[in-house]
Amino acid sequence: MYNVAIVGATGAVGEELFRVLEEYNFPVKKLVPLASARSVGKEVEFKGETLKVKELTCDVFEKEEIDIAFFSAGGSVSAKFAPCAVKAGAVVIDNTSYFRMDKDVPLVVPEVNPEDIALWRKKGIIANPNCSTIQMVISLAPLHKEFNIKRVEVATYQAVSGAGKKGMEELFEQMRAIFNFKLDKVVDEREVFQYQIALNVIPHIDKFMDNGFTREEMKMVNETNKIMHSNIEVAPTCVRVPVLRSHSEAITIHCEKEVDVKRAREVLESFEDIKVIDNPEKNEYPMPIIATDTDYVYVGRIRKDLFDNKTLHFFNVADQLRVGAATNAVRIALKWIEMEGEKFLKEKDK
Ligand code: A2P
């Protein structure tokens, strides 16, 4: 059993982590919710118990004898406090982008590259990839094995909860204002998105880079290849849409081998944590309302290109707070326990 800390316990991903840890019956000895000083004393529920949020400080990990620390409070918080947790003897599972491309930090999607967890000792940290990347690589992995992917083109449709609770609140406020005919004022007061998000789409997530892509898009380029140990060309366009939860992706893969829709469906269906919903004759395909609150990547609209027999198109949807964040983090931790847990606890006992 393990002492577990959740850093960012009051945030969108933090709240989901409590639910996922409970659902997966995670071997928790003690759970310590941590957030900023603003949230001290706030209450969270875990397995029918009420826990009080404590302040995140550098000392808290040692004081609480933490073994596993989940971080979901932004990159600067991870940069400052993850080393404190490691120093106190914990393994850190970090949801932010801060350590992802560090060569001494494994970047893991357990369905795709569980073996990379073994590298955790280099820094004591395992990074959880970007949400759009996680759901994409889960569907790419079986197709790559079958058809050898050379290039991926992807357009995302990303929910507002990807920008945290404030993102959801901003969409709610704007929707309410629309029904009250007071949108102008509310849009002037927006904080999170660059433009009005209600009844709009914004082809801009995170900062623009010199190459014309955004940082969110570059995460998909770089993280995909680190996870898959590949050299695939990735061409993403990341778009924010007024959906509360679950990201969608329209994906095109260009392969070395000729693609086959029936075979693609078979390999996707037999891959861990994928559900294929693909019945055009019954109007059945994946959508955010199907994926929300579940732990699967849903794939559908699978079709061969009309002009190139080595090109396949499909649509994929997953709950990015779960598959793209909390569930992936918990799956990493469970795999880590399976691979390293016994040794870790023995060393701690010495
Ligand atoms: P708090 O609620 O105390 O600000 P979201 O991604 O939904 O916006 O949530 C961000 C999470 O990260 C919240 O739990 C938030 O806590 C936490 N957080 C943000 N900044 C800090 C900080 N400087 N120290 C500790 N926790 C922080």
From TrEMBL:
Its EC number is 1.2.1.11. InterPro entries: Asp-semialdehyde_DH_CS, Asp_semialdehyde_DH, Asp_semialdehyde_DH_beta, NAD(P)-bd_dom_sf, Semialdehyde_DH_NAD-bd, Semialdhyde_DH_dimer_dom. The active site is at residues 131, 247. Phosphate binds at residue 100. Substrate binds at residues 158, 240. PROSITE patterns: ASD. Pathway: Amino-acid biosynthesis; L-methionine biosynthesis via de novo pathway; L-homoserine from L-aspartate: step 2/3; Amino-acid biosynthesis; L-threonine biosynthesis; L-threonine from L-aspartate: step 2/5; Amino-acid biosynthesis; L-lysine biosynthesis via DAP pathway; (S)-tetrahydrodipicolinate from L-aspartate: step 2/4. NADP(+) binds at residues 10-13, 38-39, 161-162, 320. It comes from the Bacteria. Residues 3-120 form the Semialdehyde dehydrogenase NAD-binding domain. It catalyses: L-aspartate 4-semialdehyde + phosphate + NADP(+) = 4-phospho-L-aspartate + NADPH + H(+). GO terms for molecular function: aspartate-semialdehyde dehydrogenase activity. Keywords: Amino-acid biosynthesis, Diaminopimelate biosynthesis, Lysine biosynthesis, Methionine biosynthesis, NADP, Oxidoreductase, Threonine biosynthesis. Catalyzes the NADPH-dependent formation of L-aspartate-semialdehyde (L-ASA) by the reductive dephosphorylation of L-aspartyl-4-phosphate. Homodimer. Belongs to the aspartate-semialdehyde dehydrogenase family. NCBIfam families: asd_B, PRK14874.1. This is Aspartate-semialdehyde dehydrogenase. It comes from Caminibacter mediatlanticus TB-2. The gene is asd.
